Amino acid sequence: RNSGGSGHSHFVRAMSDDVQTRVSMLHGLRAAIDFKRGLSLVYQPQINARDGELVGVEALLRWRNDAARLVPPNEFIPLAERTGLINELGLWVLDAALARLARWQAQGLALSMSVNVSSVQFRNEDFARRVLRLIEHHAVAPSAVVLEITESIALEDHAQVMGQIEELRRAGVHFAIDDFGTGFSSLSQIARLPADQLKIDRSFVEKLGVESDSSRADHAMAATVVMLAAARSMSLMAEGVETVEQRDALIAMGCEKMQGYFFGHPMPAEQFEAWLATRLQG
Ligand code: C2E
Ligand code: CA
Ligand code: CA
Ligand code: CA
Prior knowledge:
Elements: H1 4-35, E1 39-48, E2 53-64, E3 70-71, H2 73-83, H3 86-106, E4 112-116, H4 127-138, E5 145-150, H5 158-170, E6 174-180, H6 187-191, E7 197-200, H7 202-205, H8 213-231, E8 235-238, H9 244-253, E9 257-258, H10 269-281
Parallel strand pairs: 2-4, 4-5, 5-6, 6-7, 7-8
Antiparallel strand pairs: 1-2, 1-9, 2-3
Helix pairs in contact: 3-4, 4-5
The chain binds ligand C2E and calcium ion (3 copies).
One calcium ion binds at residues 58, 116, 148, 178.
Domain EAL: 22-280
Protein name: EAL domain-containing protein
């Protein structure tokens, strides 16, 4: 582009639009938390693909803003993290997910509840205690609760993070490492994180069952995750499974637990219950 002047003003205008969008998104999110409106959870089934049994669900946050637009979490979670809103938002998610788990347990459903937790939430030194208080309040089994953390946790204060993870694990809460291998932290840092489960990221699952040069690196990555899990006695969960080929490739690699559109989309609680009912009949 050669018209430097007008190009520059376009840039400034575009930038201020972006700032405006973020400020209004922030206001909307703040109001959603304060007035408990527009926030909800959807639940994606986690299946043992060997026998088809339901083993758990992952709770995923949904936000419908005042303009009735469903804002994707990938847009508002990073903003909530930068502004600290994630602390309150994360506690809302935990409270809602544990309330749901308590109801399902009361109905006799044996399943675990995986909840995504941002690394930022561990900066609050009260975080572990608050989680334990919520577990107690809803009277759910701590061992049915899986907190999904990401490798970005390695960038946080080590002692503070480890102290809180250990406190929660002593109480029986489980941890999963999400999006493994997609971040920038060193393998040795991640390999040392105390966790019970490794999640094979969708980006590696995508190429399974496909023969190509570029898929070979993804196969290798998935295989590495499988080996690491075995070496550390951690369980495995694959995500983003969309095809029967991916399912079979994962089973052949030794990964039996998985989630993805092949088995079920994330669903509101009532829809999940209906989905479960038709499965039990079928
Ligand atoms: P994630 O934890 O890796 O969640 C998996 C994402 O993949 C979800 O997107 C899910 O809807 C989608 N997905 C599941 N199965 C398939 C599949 O077979 N194919 C494809 N293409 N996608 C699939 P979603 O719900 O939009 O969430 C995006 C991310 O936002 C999550 O990634 C997580 O990092 C974050 N997130 C969602 N809810 C929460 C929350 O309550 N707290 C925090 N801190 N982060 C959350
Ligand atoms: Ca997750
Ligand atoms: Ca993931
Ligand atoms: Ca992700």
